[in-house]
Amino acid sequence: MKEMDITEVAQRSGVPASTLRYYDEKGLIVPIGRRGLRRLFDADVLERLAHIALGRTAGFSLDEIARMFGADGRPQIDRLMLTAKADELDRTIRSLSVMRDGLRHAAVCSAPSHMECPKFRRILRAAGSGAINGKGREERKSVPKPPGAEKARRAPSA
Question: Whole-structure pTM over 0.85, yes or no?
Answer without folding.
Answer: no
